[in-house]
Amino acid sequence: MTPRWVVLKFGGTSVSTLTRWETIARIIQDRLAEGLRPVVVCSALSGISNALERLLREAIAGRGAEVLASIRQPHLALGQAMALDAEALLQPYFEELERIALGASLLGEATPRLQARVMAMGELMATTLGAAYLNRMGLRTRWWDVRELLETVEETHANEARRYLSATCAYGPDPSLQERMAAEPSDVILTQGFIARNRRGETVLLGRGGSDTSAAYLAAKLQAQRLEIWTDVPGMFTANPRQIPSARLLRHLDYDEAQELATTGAKVLHPRCLEPVRAYRIPLHVKSTDHPELEGTIVSAEAPDVGPRVKAISCKTGITLVSMDTVGMWQQVGFLADVFAVFKRHGLSIDLVATSETNVTVSLDPQANALGPAQLEALLEALSAYCQARAIGPCAVVSLVGRHIRALLDELAPAFEVFGEHRIYLISQAASDLNFSFVVDEDQAERLVRRLHAELFGRLEADALFGPTWRELFAPKPPVTPAQPWWHRRQKELLEVARQHAPCYVYDEGTLSAQLEALRTVRAIDRVFYALKANDHPEVLRVFYEAGLGFECVSPGELKHLRQLFPTLAPERVLFTPNFAAAEEYQEAFAQGIFVTLDNLQALEAWPELFRGRSVLVRFDPGRGAGHHRYVRTAGAQSKFGIAPADAERLCTLANQLQLHIIGLHAHVGSGILQPETWAETALFLAELAEAYFPEVRYLDVGGGLGVADRTGVPGLDLEAVESHLERFKAAHPRYELWLEPGRFLVADAGVLLARVTQIKTKNGARYIGLETGMNSLIRPTLYGAYHEIVNLSRLDAPATQTVDVVGPICETGDVLGYSRRLPDTQPGDVLLIAQAGAYGAVMQSHYNRRQPAREIFLSATAAPSTPTFTQTTVAS
Ligand code: LLP
Question: Modified residue N6-(pyridoxal phosphate)lysine is at which positions (predicted)?
Answer without folding.
Answer: 533
